[in-house]
Amino acid sequence: MRKIVYYVATSLDGYISGKDDDISMFAPEGEMVDQYLYDLESFDTVIMGKRTYEFGYQFGLKPGQPAYSHMDHYIFSNSLKLENASEQVNVVSIEIEKVQMLKEEVGSDIYLCGGGMFAGWLMEHGMIDELKLKVNPIILGGGIRLFGDYEGSTQLKVIYSRPYTGGYQITTYKVINN
Questions:
Q1: Fewer CB near the last or first residue (10 Å), C or N of the chain?
Q2: Full-prediction pTM beyond 0.85?
Q3: How many CB atoms lie within 10 A of CB 116?
């Protein structure tokens, strides 16, 4: 069975973006970002919520186009409508059974791209298998939380951690239970 890997940048205080979706304090380049881009090549499938997909519009993504050219996209939304969507871009209803079906398909592990609320929903349902946190040495004080409104307890085990120049770090955790 494929694993879902939540690979995301975070501040030290657990935010994946600041207020008003501001990501300007996160590292835009450097060794850690290069590693992240390299790691993305190992995924053939990406899942995300509507808000994360639409966030890409600010950076040139056109509606219906894939954010990652080598991945099949599954955007979980009950309201998003895309005309002339690429064959790689699929809008699916927000149902845990759809996530389970993707995990059971043949392929690489699944990249969970951002979306604190979506990640929290997946965590609540026991669907996230690994976290790969790109920890930035910043404190944002508000914004979008790593797991949205999720308030459950989850035990993790560090699998690997690597520091990068400037106080950055990528740490991989295995989800033990939740």
A1: N
A2: yes
A3: 24
